[in-house]
Write a structure and sequence with these properties.
This protein is mainly beta. Helices cover about 5% and strands about 60% of the residues. It contains 1 helix and 8 strands; from the N terminus they run E-H-E-E-E-E-E-E-E. The strands form 2 sheets. It has a 4-stranded antiparallel sheet. Strand 6 and strand 7 form a beta hairpin.
Length: about 120
C-alpha cells in the first residue's frame, strides 16, 4: 500500500552571504541516507525533498568539510557563510518560497575544522 501523500512540500535550500568565501562543502543525510553534497563553490541549490521524507519524525544530518579548492583561505570572517536549510514551502513562477524553516545549518568562513549537526524534524 502506498503511503498517504504529505500535506505540505518540503525543500532543501542553500543560501548565504559571500557563500564562495565560506569554502565549505556540506553533506546532507536524510534519515541516515546520504542525499547530496552542497558546495560553497556552486550556485544556489533548491531541491524538493518531499518524497525523500517520511511522515512523522525525520533525522537530518549535516556534515561540513572545509574545501579550499587548492587555494588559500578566501576569508576568515563569520559574516561569510554557507547556509543550508530545510523548510516547508511553495513553488510557483520559477521560485520557491519557504514559509517555515524546520532545520538550518550554517558553515562560516572563520572556522577551519570539519563539523556536523543532527536535527530532528516533524513532517506532516
Amino acid at each position: 500500500a502506498k503511503a498517504s501523500p504529505k500535506s505540505k512540500r518540503y525543500y532543501l535550500v542553500s543560501a548565504g552571504k559571500r557563500v564562495k568565501a565560506a569554502q565549505y562543502d556540506v553533506d546532507v543525510f536524510l534519515n541516515g541516507k546520504w542525499f547530496r553534497k552542497i558546495r560553497s563553490s556552486e550556485p544556489q541549490v533548491v531541491v524538493d525533498i518531499t518524497d525523500r521524507l517520511k511522515r512523522g519524525r525525520n533525522l537530518i544530518n549535516f556534515t561540513a568539510t572545509k574545501n579550499y579548492g587548492g587555494k588559500g583561505r578566501a576569508s576568515t570572517s563569520a559574516t561569510d557563510y554557507l547556509r543550508v536549510l530545510i523548510g516547508v514551502g511553495t513553488s510557483g513562477g520559477g521560485t520557491v518560497s519557504i514559509s517555515k524553516t524546520l532545520a538550518e545549518f550554517r558553515a562560516t568562513a572563520d572556522k577551519v575544522a570539519n563539523f556536523g549537526n543532527a536535527v530532528t524534524i516533524d513532517v506532516e
